[in-house]
Write a structure and sequence with these properties.
homotetramer, mainly alpha, Arc Repressor Mutant, subunit A, Tetracycline Repressor, domain 2, 2 domains, 9 helices, about 70% helix, elongated, DNA-binding
Chain lengths: ~220, ~220, ~220, ~220
DNA sequence: AATGAATGAGAATTCATTCAT
DNA sequence: TATGAATGAATTCTCATTCAT
């Protein structure tokens, strides 16, 4: 039975022996543990044994599911993000409203949820580790950066076309929108996780930030 | 050997024999090498031998100047940043103009220079490593986050008081200003260092970003 | 499945259901696989899982038949050789001819067959592993070396008594006869299995070798 | 200083610091220990730590001189044999006598010395491990089998040409000469190292064996 | 009997740090 | 001071063996 490490794999039919039920859950449990630890300590400083332990299995078991620590890293990154990106794209496609509205609702929601989910850790992880794993750079560009930029860019363009926004340079605006939000995710898992400094009301910040950008690119209302 | 001598290491008096001058530069050369490697590969994945090698000394020599790899990390972080922060504060203090102008010139300049200097790497380094070294978190909060936020916050407040800006929530605006710029530094040393994805015109982005924020917080001009 | 059923495993009565016949062959299939792999890779470098796999069963099943990997080694060695030795002795006993003739026919045949059978691998295996398993040394001395030397020695002695051979030192001649033939078996499973070097016409070599020895020990014919 | 791991490297001048004197000896000490253990237990069953220990150094030190256990294996094999082969060739080249005499003296001496030296273990090692390391097969064929066969073959041929020997098939005779001697070396480090079985007077056997072969290939004396 | 998931002791290798020179 | 050989704790990964199903 080729164990599909499906993300939200429905647990195997209760008829299946407990043995196998465990087996189906292992990959996901290991991925969870690995993500948590890689994000917290970094790839190199995380011991495989600790991952196994946190997943409730022994050292050896990890290697029944993943061929190496590096393999685990790849999987952690690709699995946790693709779903969120796909979901975001689906939502936008389904949404009828104006660009401004789209950004105020969907974008705010999506990032708020992302920030609060485990996926936010992936941003920190990727930022910290890409240079050691060129393969991850490709994966990330292909699966996240490119579609993400394309998606948000298209919303901005739509707004320009509809006369909601000024004729801004789309690429630059996308960066202005996204970089702080990415940084928010990164921050949450680095300095933000320490108790020093004033805490950051993320929820509010996202809203305010989008608002700020919208004002910044809004077409000035000329007429009375 | 083209290493930039440490910013705050007083160069030995030119009268000193070349041999001693060399020795006096050792710590700084080690710091340069360590920063470069820590930023690129991360703390755990950097070998002390490589640091020594890049600094042109032997493994053992490193321990004559620093008590441990971790010690080196602390020094790398504190040395490179304090100077830049202090410099920024001095400039602002010396500047007479309006808040808007201050931001358009000093802020843009400071970040542009920071981004291009080695100091930008420190952001990535800190982001990646704080959670493993609580001590760094304190250091950073005390020496960088706090004074930096205070500084920019005061500019914004000045703008509000002077009627240049709307009565925005200062803390939030500071984050809106700073997070993307920090992210820019971080990015430069992670995904930005890979060849994938479209490159980012940093120079322009900084200007555009500040501009965007200024528009976002600008007080609407109502009257003719 | 084309494994040669074990030499001395009595085949299950043909009346037995196919299912059970299959089961009865398991041990022998495991032995075949183990021999093949131990000979090729050595004991330590062979994984039990591979043995099981080549025998067409699962890892766990192996332990239903053998208590450990080492147990398997012992069985492999003792099973494959005792039969061949016994057979050789029987043949010699049944043969009426002169010592010279006996060596030219029986000895040549026996070694030719041995070399071509799986049993030849056992020589390499034993040579490689005895020092790690003193138990095997005993087994081998008792079951193979001793009876073998005794057998060939007796033929040589018979030849001396009959005036066919010179009064050579029997023990030494036995070694001269046997060592190259053993080496031939060993060679076949080590360097001979690699494609380098000129191949060796084993068949011819055995004949030539026995011939050489016979000439070496032949009683010089003095008279007309 | 590129440490030449010369075989019989003269110890560095006594002026050299003890530190360095040790360093020059390490490779050879490690090689000795490795050979001894690899021969006794086989490659896979030998622990690197044990090698280091027997060489009087710590585990880590081994890796300062050899990049891996496998590297050590290669070195062990190539270093210990090339010298002996070269020596043998030199001696033969320098010898004036008849083929028969050459074989009775040089061949006997060379093999006697080889058998008694550490080099004899290499035969067992190679026989046991070639199939796992194709690279060794090449090395062996190139450095040992080929020149050795060529050398002995040339002696035999010389004997034939000079009318000392019958017009035998040279290749086959070479095998008849060499295989038992190789087997003797192999035997010495496998079954021969166990206390079971009657011991083998190697010295005498070599002489007798060569003698036997010489008689076997001698040209029958026809005339009165 | 048969399976194969799980285990954990064990082995190779790395690397921060020490210290004799 | 500077060196670099040596160390050994720590880490990744393997594999014989067990055991619930």
């Amino acid at each position: 039975m080729p164990h599909t490490p499906a993300l939200n794999a429905a647990p195997p039919s209760p008829a299946a022996p407990a043995h196998q039920r465990r087996k189906a859950e292992r990959p996901s449990e290991l991925l969870d543990a690995a993500l948590r630890l890689f994000v917290e300590k970094g790839f190199a400083a995380t011991r495989t044994e600790e991952i196994a332990q946190q997943a409730g299995v022994s050292k050896g078991t990890l290697y029944l599911y993943y061929t190496s620590k590096e393999d685990l890293l790849r999987e952690v990154i690709s699995q946790r993000v693709s779903t969120r990106v796909a979901e975001g794209m689906a939502r936008v496609a389904a949404h009828p409203g104006s660009a401004t509205e789209l950004m105020r609702t969907l974008l705010v929601d999506w990032w708020t949820q992302t920030l609060e989910s485990d996926a936010s850790g992936v941003f920190k992880l990727v930022v910290s580790e890409v240079r050691n794993f060129p393969e991850i750079a490709e994966l990330w560009a292909r699966e996240v950066t490119a579609p993400g930029a394309q998606l948000i860019g298209s919303i901005v363009q739509r707004g320009i076309d509809a006369g909601e926004f000024r004729a801004v340079e789309v690429g630059s605006v996308v960066h202005s929108i996204v970089l702080p939000l990415v940084m928010l995710c990164v921050h949450r898992h680095s300095l933000g996780a320490c108790e020093c400094g004033q805490p950051l009301d993320a929820q509010a910040f996202i809203r305010d930030h989008i608002d700020l950008v919208l004002r910044g690119i809004a077409r000035p209302v000329r007429d009375a």
